[in-house]
Amino acid sequence: MLARGSVPNSRRITETKGLLCLAKLVEMEEGELQSNCLMTITEITAAAESNADLRRATFKTNSPAAKAVVDQLLRVIKDSDDPRLQGAAIRAIGSLARTFPARETRVVGPLVEVLGHRNQDVAVEAAVALGKFACPDNFLCVEHCKTIIEFRGVPPLMRLLRGNERAQLHGLILACYLAIHVGKSEDLERAGLLNAFEGVDRALIAQHPELKELIPQAIYHLSVFHQSHSGMLAQRQF
Predict the structure, then answer these.
(1) SS3 sequence of 113-163
(2) 2, 76, 100, 168 - which has most CB atoms within 10 Å?
(3) What gap in Å lies between CA 218 and CA 171, rounded to an integer?
(4) What pLDDT, on a 0 to 100 scale, did the predictor assign at position 230?
(5) Structure confidence at residue 161 (pLDDT)
């Protein structure tokens, strides 16, 4: 509760080796203590997402404490059978999206894996987190988008587009980022993403202004590739 929405408190916790202690407790403990430690990490990472200075100071790639935290978050995402804990760990990784280098596929891989989770809430959290890797605010968005596709993220993403409104919203946002940044991907064409965009419920777009901007951009990028690709095939056949 002290860390929630507070950059100064989050900084104090991390400066007193609190991060390493929290990672150890998440690893060793169970039940309420483990859950509260994980929630604390989630609040600290949310504060770091909103504050570049805290993010750079606390979650440097060569920091042992940061590595220990990320390792435990990934372990929870992969091994926990508690959707609440998985969701918290996924949110924390998403908050740290701008701290990971392009080659850090060990983080994107597990997120793509839970994109197809049987619990739709967990799958949606994964889509939100991956959206933070793929969005234009992330300097490495193009590389991350390529990684998401390489790890076979398109099929579970397409299933998410058939879910409830929240699933559709965050699935569409992630799908738009993939189309905008790597529209030339044949995986997107094979999945029928262009048709999926064109068939989106207008009421959903009206309720979520961000989709009004993203979907036309995504359709444009996919259409340009689709037309040029069809033209090349026609030339070959001729």
Answers:
(1) HHCCCCCHHHHHHHHHHHHHHHCCCCCCHHHHHHHHHHCCCHHHHHHHCCC
(2) 76
(3) 13
(4) 53
(5) 94
Measure the CA angle with vertex 153, ends 152 and 156; round to 5°: 110
Q: What is the pLDDT of residues 177-222, one digit of tens each?
A: 999 999 899 999 999 999 999 889 889 999 999 999 999 999 999 9
Distance CA 54, CA 204 (A): 36
pLDDT tens column, 68-108: 999 999 999 999 999 999 999 999 999 999 999 987 789 99
Buried b (16+ CB within 10 A) or exposed e, 189-204: bebebbebbeebeeee
- DSSP-assigned letters across all residues of 42-73: HHHHHHHHH-HHHHHHH--TT-HHHHHHHHHH
Cα 206–208–210 angle (5° rounding)? 115
Q: What is the rounded CA–CA span in Å between residue 230 and residue 61?
A: 43
Q: What is the pTM of this model?
A: 0.92
Instruction: Give dist(CA 188, CA 53) in Å, integer.
Output: 37
Q: What is the DSSP letter of 238?
A: -
